[in-house]
């Protein structure tokens, strides 16, 4: 059996079938990408599954991909994400876009931004639990 057939069998074993969007990929791409997809979407990695999916959902919201949004929302729920966590991740995704747009529109100096971030972080660490 060749690598492509082995890959299809592994996808089938993992999902119960081979999704059409995977069959539509060139054979060599699926063979190369499937192990990476499986590791970081299905199996264990350094980031717990719920957090991986919440990160994926935030990215999907920012790139405005309905396929990715549907996938990561469902996978986050399957991995225990609560409605409160889903609401919070949508807020965080929105804030990231908002502040990025604001700072870019100002053409804010990057080195100044980095210095100010370091100052904020040092202050927050120094005052942690005191506010």
In short:
With 131 residues, this protein is an all-alpha fold. It contains seven helices and no strands.
User: Class by helix and strand content?
Assistant: mainly alpha
How far apart, in Å, are the first and last alpha carbons?
64 Å
> What is the CATH-assigned architecture of the largest domain?
Up-down Bundle
Strand content: under 5%
Radius of gyration (Å): 20 Å
How would you characterize this protein structure?
- This protein is mainly alpha-helical.
- The chain has 2 domains: 1-43, no CATH class; 44-131, AhpD-like (Up-down Bundle), CATH 1.20.1290.10.
- Helices cover 78% and strands 0% of the residues.
- The chain has 7 helices and no strands.
- It has helices at residues 3-15, 20-23, 27-41, 49-63, 66-78, 83-106, 110-127.
- Helix 1 (3-15) packs parallel to helix 3 (27-41) and helix 4 (49-63) runs antiparallel to helix 5.
- The mean pLDDT is 95.
């Amino acid at each position: 059996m060749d690598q492509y057939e082995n890959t299809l069998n592994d996808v089938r074993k993992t999902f119960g079938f081979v999704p059409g969007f995977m069959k539509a990929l060139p054979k060599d791409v699926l063979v190369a990408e499937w192990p990476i997809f499986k590791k970081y979407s299905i199996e264990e990695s350094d980031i717990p599954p719920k957090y991986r999916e919440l990160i994926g959902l935030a990215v999907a919201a920012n790139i405005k991909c309905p396929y990715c949004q549907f996938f990561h929302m469902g996978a986050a729920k399957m991995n225990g994400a609560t409605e409160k966590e889903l609401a919070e991740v949508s807020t965080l995704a929105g804030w990231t876009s908002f502040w990025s747009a604001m700072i870019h529109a100002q053409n804010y100096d990057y080195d100044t931004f980095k210095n100010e971030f370091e100052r904020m972080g040092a202050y927050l660490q120094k005052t942690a639990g005191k506010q």
